[in-house]
Amino acid sequence: MQISFVGLLVCAGILLVGYFCRGPLIIGLIASLAFGATAFMTLSSLGGSSPLIYTFFAVLLVTAVATRRRIWRDLGDVFGKIRPLWVLCSLMLYAIVGAWLFPRLFAGQISVFVQSPTRRGIVEAALVPVSGNITQTGYFVLGGLTAIALCVLLLQEDRIESIRRGFLLWCGLHAGMGLLDLLGKLAGAGDILSPVRTASYAMLTEVTEGGYWRIAGANSEASAFGGGALTCLAFCYTYWRKTKSRLAQGLASLLLVLLVLSTSSTAYVGLAILSIPIGLSIFRSFLGGRIDKDEILIIALIALAAATALSIVLYKEEFFAPFVHLIDSMVLSKSSSASGQERLYWNIKSLQAFINTSGLGVGLGSSRASSWPIAIASQLGLVGSVMMLTLLFVVFRGMGSLKHHVDRETNAVVSSVRACALASVVSSSLIGASADPGMFFFIALAVISTTRANARRNSRAAAKRALQFGQPAPFAPI
User: Fold this and answer.
1) How distant is the alpha carbon of residue 361 from its chain centre?
2) C-alpha distances in angstroms, 256 versus 55, 253, 421, 432?
3) Which keywords label this protein (predicted)?
């Protein structure tokens, strides 16, 4: 085991900022997710696995909750009020058993794609137990335990302000480091953020595409930065629309620019997908005569950008040729490229593994896919997929009609966290290699579930007061 001094230094800095923001563990956990290539140690015994710094904060949070005096009473209260946690625990248990059992049960009968133990890269090999069964299952279980720990904290005390500050800090760090990375490359300084990249990943940071520098930020490659920018943009845009926050508006604008300049096909396709509900929402407001000034601003900016682009093309026709070539190579022709064909083959082999195991799966961490839904099916099987879909429905549903029983700020934060998690799911569905939905998903699950539980409590209290004064009781959804 090798300790990373730089990784620990970054952890200390985040803890200090979190302390001054009055939420060191919650804010620290969320903010640490901006450092996608910063590890605090390297585990040689597990094939050189290097846990990122967010795992340090997740372990701290789980430990702090587990050592509370009333932990068993708190857990009873949480599991009694938040039923999706039973599904989460069942899925965690199934993932642990499957990661140990299925690679041994189907050993040598199925070919899968795994990380090569001797060289960096993905190779096709016969199914056998690998170190990924331990590491990927560990990350998944840690995410589930973090969700339970957050439920304990959020159910006992109103910490929605810590959630808000944590996500805004994470968005600011992600955008700031992306901007620094781009400016450093344009100035000829190269990868100025290389000191914080302490993970044992293959770092594809000083790469160009179509004459454009690829933005990696504090991540290992442009696709990871693009996926992170997409999730940040979803949070900031939703929070801006809900609260009219100038900070969120500024961050959303900066993130949109960086996302366009990132040269990430994941970011481009994800942005196109997420633009559909936004466009439908604006169109619905227009038809209903309820369009507000922010929606008018969005339409005006789009029209201005289109008019500017048209004017430039009329003045100098070849001006956008490099960008058109970039879009063609990164999006339109991506599926026909060697990388696209390789990733397609990963997905085909993963689906074959699902069929060949009769829907049981090969076990978490046993294989590599290029799409999160396919990774779930191949690694967790039919049973695990159903449980994961149940949790995904909880996140997708959000507050629903219960939003009327919480204050506007709480509803805005919960809606923004939900949008962030769904954007993360979209990004993972495009390039996700593992069945682990990621820490954003588990945080959103905890925030939404506890807020719904608190809203139901507020609804029952309102109904009780209404009955005492002889008024009709408000409807309280389950």
Assistant:
1) 24
2) 28, 5, 18, 22
3) Membrane, Transmembrane, Transmembrane helix
pLDDT tens, residue by residue, 206-230:
887 767 788 998 998 888 999 999 9
- Which SS3 state, helix, strand or coil, does residue 150 take? helix
User: Would you give the distance in Å from CA 8 to the centre of its chain?
Assistant: 23
Summary mean pLDDT of the chain: 86
The DSSP result for 420-465, as a single string, is: HHHHHHHHHHHH--SS---HHHHHHHHHHHHHHHHHHHHHHHHHHH
**pLDDT tens per residue, range 160-206:** 999 999 999 999 999 999 999 999 998 988 889 999 998 877 787 88
Query: Which H/E stretch holds residue 31?
Result: helix 24-32
Q: Name the domain count of the chain.
A: 1
Residue 6 lies in a domain: no
- Exposure string for 84-96, b = 16+ CB within 10 A, e = fewer: bbebbeebbebbb
Torsion of CA 424, 438, 443, 83, to 10 degrees: 110
Q: Rounded to whole angstroms, how far apart are CA atoms 257 and 217?
A: 14
CA 467, CA 129: separation in Å to the nearest integer? 61
With 60 as the cut, is the pLDDT of residue 16 above it?
Answer: yes
**Domain enclosing residue 171, as ranges:** 69-468
pLDDT at 336: 61
Residue 124 lies in a domain: yes
325 — pLDDT class (breaks 50, 70, 90): low
Amino acid (one-letter) located at 109: Q
The rounded Cα 82 to chain-centroid distance in angstroms is 22
User: Can you read off the two tokens belonging to residue 43?
Assistant: 């585990």
**The pTM is what?**
0.91
Instruction: Examine residue 43 and state whether it is found in any structural domain, yes or no.
Output: no
Q: Is the pLDDT of residue 478 over 50?
A: no
